[in-house]
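PT: before anyone asks, these are the final sequences, not the draft ones from last week. 502 residues across everything. Please model them as a single complex and drop the result in this thread when it's through.
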Amino acid sequence: MSDTRYTKDHEFIRIEGDSAVIGITAYAQEQLGDVVFVELPEIGAEFASGDEAAVVESVKAASEVYAPISGAVLEVNGDLEGEPGLVNEDPVGRGWFMRLSVSDKSELDDLMDEAAYQAHLAEL
Amino acid sequence: MSETPLKHTPLDSLHRSLGAKMVPFAGYEMPIQYADGIVAEHNHTRAAAGLFDVSHMGQARLEGREVIAAFEKLVPGEIAALKPGRMRYTQLTNDEGGILDDLMVTRLEDMLGDERLFLVVNAACKDADFQHIGASLGNLPRLEVLETRALLALQGPKAIGVMAEVLKNCADTRCTGMSFMSMREIDSDFGKLFISRCGYTGEDGFEISVEASKAEGLARALLQSDDVRPIGLGARDTLRLEAGLCLYGHDIDTATTPIEAGLIWSIGKRRRLEGGFAGADVILKQIADGPSRKLVGLLPDGRAPAREGTEITSPDGAVIGKVTSGGFGPTLGGPLAMGYVASEFAAPGTGVNLMVRGKALPARVAAMPFVPNNYYRP
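LR: through. Structure below.
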């Protein structure tokens, strides 16, 4: 049973047991436009919530992606190296960025659920 | 944040109706992209034809007795040798040899003993340019800023066919016979047009100066063709970067000279011998001795783009220059950049590093254009 949360910076956090899959939302990829490069962290890197964790480069510009929760990098999406366009084609699926361990479950409470995120989008 | 209200081109409502994403640029609200996105727009221009609104650029006519000799004091380009209907790329220089702006200069037919030039300059510089030209030339020549004319660019291999179709009712519609870097005045269903075979994409194509009131009608007529799609500033930038063309305010400015920028080809042989233009001392000395730094193309070995401002270092870690334009080339299929490096590192193939987010990413100096150009050369 997965549970997806969101940040106001348009990252998604799909909670799968003790870890979470992080990426950017459909809205974010649409705003960025054609993604041409994603810089992902090293496996094992540890982040505090709010640390810069990845960089996504579109034709237009480079944008930082911040760790939405504290945790260690368990896995990164190696497919993005050869196919950064997956972020545009399937952002919440094959275009995921990284899997983080969830070190502090209480941080998840600060994130938006689906309904809150949809309400956030409606205000933009 | 500047509170100056943004200006709008005559095609503003057309852009919005076509789904453009509008951004501030050089004091105007301009389309950065349409629904297709930058990569699709870029590819469409290379494969078929793209329509660009460049009405924000400055257009002017300069007329007067012996105005060409006077104008040549402001630019290093060979203007006197231009035949009527022919155009040149040149730069307005300052006394230090720096570039105030780059521009296109077309010689029109003389009229009643007056020589006449048609100028197209950059949007961000146009007020300063026209003030500089007016102040430098004095009262005798007439500088008429063409504020009521829009400028459209139709670029790509299918542009010629589209022009012939859209202008087929004109008595004098032989765009097909126009050579590269030439201009014609044509009476059309859209009023008097100044059509130039030139552009900023590396492709064959045209720039069309049209009265503002007729601009939307002309744009819609061009867009009727299945070959034509509207293209925003985003793809204009990737197209010009692949073509190795400088962008004013980024690759060239008052702190760079035409020689450092690799624009020596735009300075005629006579001008090199005679001088007599602003900054000639500096520029002619750099031609003789070689500049200490040069604008070069850069190809990163990896996939990460290096953006404007990225430091360039030598293999042993010394800072040797800075990226002035950089991003991703859709036709090239990878990252590309332009930047200044110390001249000993300027030879194509030289290995350098680009400092991206604190990491030294290896890159090679590359000859430009990055993508072969496709200008009309019969």
